[in-house]
Amino acid sequence: MKKVFILSLLLLFIVSGCALTEEAVKEIGIEEAKAITVDFINNNLMQPGSEVSIKEAVDEGSLYKMVINMPNGQEEINSYLTKDGKKFFPQVMDIEEIKEVAVEEENTPAAQPATADVPKAEKASVELFIMSQCPYGTQIEKGILPVLETLGDQIDFKLKFCDYAMHGKTELDEQLNQYCIQQNEPDKLLAYLTCFLGEGKGEDCLSKVSINASKLNSCVAATDKEFKVTELYNDKSSWKSGQFPQFNVDQADNQKYGITGSPGLVINGAKISSGRDSASLLKTICAGFDNSPEQCGTELSSAAPSPGFGFGTTGSDTDAGCGS
What we know:
Elements: H1 2-20, H2 30-44, E1 53-59, E2 63-69, E3 77-82, E4 88-89, H3 95-106, E5 125-130, H4 135-151, E6 156-161, H5 168-184, H6 189-199, H7 202-208, H8 213-227, H9 229-234, H10 251-257, E7 261-262, E8 264-267, E9 270-272, H11 278-286, E10 304-305, E11 313-314, E12 322-323
Parallel strand pairs: 5-6
Antiparallel strand pairs: 1-2, 2-3, 3-4, 5-8, 7-12, 8-9, 10-11
Helix pairs in contact: 4-6, 4-11, 5-8, 6-7
C-alpha cells in the first residue's frame, strides 16, 4: 500500500500543479492530445506489430481522458493526458477503492520474507497465482519455469489464478485454457507455458504442444458454466469495483491466502515474497523442504526476466504487480 499511497500523492501533486499554474501552461487541443497519446503508446508501450487506437477523448477538467481500443479484441482501457500533452497516466486511482483494499489487506495475511520464514514440509507445495496477461505475472512464470523443470516431481506445483481479470475477455479465455490443460494434460502444461510466454499466442501453442482439442473444449465449457465466467463477464454490475470481471475458479484460495493481485506466490500454505529470477525462486522454494533434494544445488540464472511476453531479461528485479 505504501507504493500506491506515494503514487496517489504524486498524481495529486501533478494534477494540482497543472490546475494552479493553468495560466502559464499552454494547453493543446483534444485532437492533438489524441495524436500524442496514440503515438506514445504505440511507439513506447506496445510490442512490435501491435497498435492501439483512440475510441474516444473526453475533456475532464485538468486532464484529457482517452478511451483506448486495445488490439486483438482485448477490453478497452481508460488512460489520461495532461492538457499540456506532457504527462501520461495509464490509469487513475479510485480513492474509495484504495480505501477498501487497505481495509482488506489489514485483515489478510501479509507476505512473509523470502527464505527465512518459509514453512517446512517433506515435499514442498508451490502455488503460483497470476493473471495470464499481466506482464508481472508472465515475468515470474518465466522465472519459475526452469525451477519447475529442475525440481520436477520433488514438489507439488499448481498454477492458479487471481479471482478477477484486468485484461479483458482475452485473459479470461486464456485462463480457462490453462486451467483445463493443467486438469486434463498436466504433463504438457510447462511446454504450453514455455510456448505461450514467448509471444502470447495461445491458439498457436495449443497446436504446437498437441493439446487434445476435444477434451480442452469440453473442460472449458464445463468450467465456464460451473464458475459462471462468461455470465459474470456479461454482467458488468458484478465486476470488481465496476471495472474488472470476476474469475472465480480459485476464489476460495485467493481468500484463504489473501491474494489481491498478480503475481502471488504461496509455499506450503504461506504467502511468500521472492525475487522473480530463477536462482531466487529456486532458493525460496528449496527453503520449504525439511531436507532439500540435491536439485536445490543447481545453478540457475540470476537475471530477472523482463515483464510481459518474450524471454529477454531486465537489469533489476521488481515487486510490481497487476492489481492491489
